[in-house]
């Protein structure tokens, strides 16, 4: 096993404790009211339907094995059909949609302390996440995460999502680290562990609820929290 020289993290449900509900009627009612300031008159139910249809249309035009939806493009296309081509407004709709859908949003108690320890000990750090570029980086800034990371790799930058091995290759390439000398920490066995190990990375499954064992694909280490992961990395390094 190679010495670990860099650590790459998943973001949501690994560092950020989040729960969203994107089907709440209140989201679309408020978005509908917001759009009226721009003379876009679309009812809440029609807006929900348009969002679903545009997502499906977007995916149908994407030939990737693991396609990713870019919410900013989706909203821009909806607005275009309403006669308004305004990229700034599309971005604003994305952020309002995200804000209204969030039911829980914050850091896990171990996120900042462990990141500080890793940074103090000289480990280069990066984030690789299935995430919307329109708000992921800003959410990281809100919670004080961005100061620790040299790179943020988000699936919507490329049009495909985990476990596509190319995302993991991109992250390692940006850091200038061979995959064998990097470890990926994530909370999803299929997306995170499979994706990382396909290119020869080591992988830690962050299993806070301890309910993902005994599967076909095994991580290099099971961690119940980030402190466990950090202790393993120190021993391996």
Give the strand content: 15-25%
Classify the secondary structure makeup into a structural class. Answer: alpha/beta
For this structure, the CATH topology of the largest domain is: Rossmann fold
Distance between the termini: 10 Å
Written overview of the protein:
- By secondary structure, the protein is an alpha/beta fold.
- The chain has two domains: 144 residues, Rossmann fold, CATH 3.40.50.1000; 84 residues.
- The chain has nine helices and eight strands.
- It has a six-stranded parallel sheet, sandwiched between helices. Strands 2-3 form a two-stranded antiparallel sheet.
- α6 links the parallel β4 and β5.
- α1 packs antiparallel against α4 and α3 packs across α4.
- The longest helix is centred in the N-terminal third of the chain and has 17 residues.
- It is elongated, with a radius of gyration of 19 Å.
At a glance:
With 237 residues, the protein is of the alpha/beta class. It has helices spanning 25-35, 44-60, 71-81, 87-101, 111-120, 136-142, 165-175, 189-198, 226-236, and strands spanning 6-9, 16-20, 102-107, 125-129, 151-154, 182-186, 202-206, 221-223. Helix 8 (189-198) links the parallel strand 6 (182-186) and strand 7.
Write the layout of secondary structure elements.
Elements: E1 6-9, E2 16-20, H1 25-35, H2 44-60, H3 71-81, H4 87-101, E3 102-107, H5 111-120, E4 125-129, H6 136-142, E5 151-154, H7 165-175, E6 182-186, H8 189-198, E7 202-206, E8 221-223, H9 226-236
Parallel strand pairs: 1-4, 1-6, 4-5, 6-7, 7-8
Antiparallel strand pairs: 2-3
């Amino acid at each position: 096993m190679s010495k670990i020289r860099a650590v790459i993290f998943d973001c949501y449900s690994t560092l950020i404790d989040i729960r969203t509900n994107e089907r709440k009627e209140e989201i679309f009612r408020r978005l509908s009211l917001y759009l009226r300031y721009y003379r876009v008159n679309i009812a809440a139910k029609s807006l929900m339907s348009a969002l679903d249809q545009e997502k499906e249309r977007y995916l149908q035009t994407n030939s990737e094995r693991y396609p990713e939806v870019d919410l900013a493009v989706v909203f821009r296309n909806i607005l275009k059909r309403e006669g308004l081509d305004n990229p700034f407004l599309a971005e604003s709709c994305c952020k309002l949609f995200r804000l209204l859908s969030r039911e829980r949003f914050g850091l896990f108690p171990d996120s900042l302390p462990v990141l500080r320890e890793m940074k103090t000990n000289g480990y280069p750090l990066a984030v690789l996440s299935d995430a919307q570029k329109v708000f992921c980086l800003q959410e990281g800034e809100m919670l004080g995460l961005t100061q620790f990371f040299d790179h943020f790799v988000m699936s919507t930058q490329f049009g495909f999502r985990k476990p596509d091995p190319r995302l993991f290759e991109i992250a390692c390439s940006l850091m200038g680290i061979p995959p064998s000398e990097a470890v990926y920490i994530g909370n999803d066995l299929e997306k995170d562990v499979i994706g990382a190990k396909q290119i020869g990375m080591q992988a830690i499954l962050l299993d806070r609820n301890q309910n993902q064992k005994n599967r076909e694909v095994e991580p290099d280490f099971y961690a119940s929290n980030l402190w466990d992961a950090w202790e393993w990395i120190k021993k391996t390094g």
